Amino acid sequence: MHAIDSSMAGVISFLDRYSLYFILGHKEPDGDCVGSQLALASFLERHGKTCVLLSAGPFSRTEIASHASRFAETASTPVPADSAVVVLDCSSLSRVGQSADGLSGLPLAFIDHHASGEASGEVRFVNPAAPSVTYLVQSIIEASGDRPSPLEAELLLFGLCTDTGFFRHLGEKSGEVFHSAARLVAAGASPKEVFAMMNGGKPFASRKLMGELLSRAESLYDGKLLVTWTGIEEQQRYGLVGRDSDMLYQLLMTVEGVEAVVVVRQEKPGECTVGFRSRELIDVAAIAASFGGGGHRLAAGLHIFGELDEIKSKVVEAFKSVFS
Ligand SMILES: [Mn+2]
Question: What is the dihedral of CA 253, 254, 256, 262, to 10 degrees?
């Protein structure tokens, strides 16, 4: 068993050591995942490396759909000698899905800002205090004595804005995050364009579906928990494109007295996903973890086997101890 290197020097030397890097992210990628993968690949390619971008997809979020063509689902075999794997925005291989197929045994590094994950990989550059993985990738580029290209800066700002809800989720000790964002803007990123990329281009029907979820939301535990849900038939009727939960959470979190919001979706018969948001007091990552999910203290999620009604009542029940 080798010691795991979690230092900046360790990750920089890992990214210098090999000639080809497979750059992976988690299933159901978001702007932070895709932005950090693309920015890291661009940086490494500028430094003479070959990069292969892999993702299990699906690229169902409107704001990342245009990047889908840059990614393959699995590596083509045989894998060239002197290759290594970098996994971004998650800390365990189970989250990357089939994109890791054929890559076992290669040198492996994780760059992540989630607290959960298993202790594998030669390098684990993991900082749960980081607001996004793009923030960590930016710190790696800068610690290497370089600065992001205009394209990389835009991708890095896109990831940072995705995971911070365009800076809304940041608290009082986040001065350094704003400094790093300022350096991205100085390097050519446009906040206006990133905002449009994140929030524009949604199908009309996706807003109608959001209306359905808003009208059916239930207020529980004296208004501290708001829960809403949607079934398969309804999602098919309105279409799955552009279902940005972020806006839905944002609207529900504005309600007076609310501490947490839960959204349950039946994805297919016998399978649901559950999303959690917390205002401040409730650790929703712990609640998600009790069902096998994960995430951050104030934003978490899980994929679970079962039907909508059953999962919804189990999840609501799990809040009993925190609200009593
Ligand atoms: Mn992230």
Answer: -20
Query: How far is the C-alpha of 216 from the C-alpha of 316, rounded, in Å?
Result: 15
The CA 91 to ligand 1 mean position distance, Å, reads 11
How many angstroms is it from 25 CA to the middle of ligand 1?
Answer: 10
* 2 located within any domain: no
Domain that holds residue 69: 8-198
Residue at 3 is within a domain = no
Are 156 and 283 within one domain?
no
Q: Which residues contact 126 (CB under 8 A, 6 or more apart)?
A: 6, 91, 110, 111, 112, 113, 114, 117
Say how many Å lie between the CA of residue 132 and the centre of ligand 1.
Answer: 5
144 shares its domain with 61: yes
Where is the domain boundary, 198, 220, 247? 198
Model pTM score = 0.83
Report CA(233)–ligand 1 centroid distance (Å): 30
The token pair that represents 221 in the structure block: 């535990």
Q: What is the mean pLDDT of each run of 10 residues along the chain (324 residues)?
A: 83 98 96 98 98 94 92 92 96 90 94 81 93 98 98 98 93 96 98 93 91 97 98 92 81 97 96 96 96 91 96 97 89
Q: How far is ligand 1, taken at its centre, from the CA of residue 202, in Å?
A: 22
Question: Ligand 1 centroid to 164 CA: how many Å?
Answer: 9
Q: Which residues contact 296 (CB under 8 A, 6 or more apart)?
A: 114, 115, 128, 285
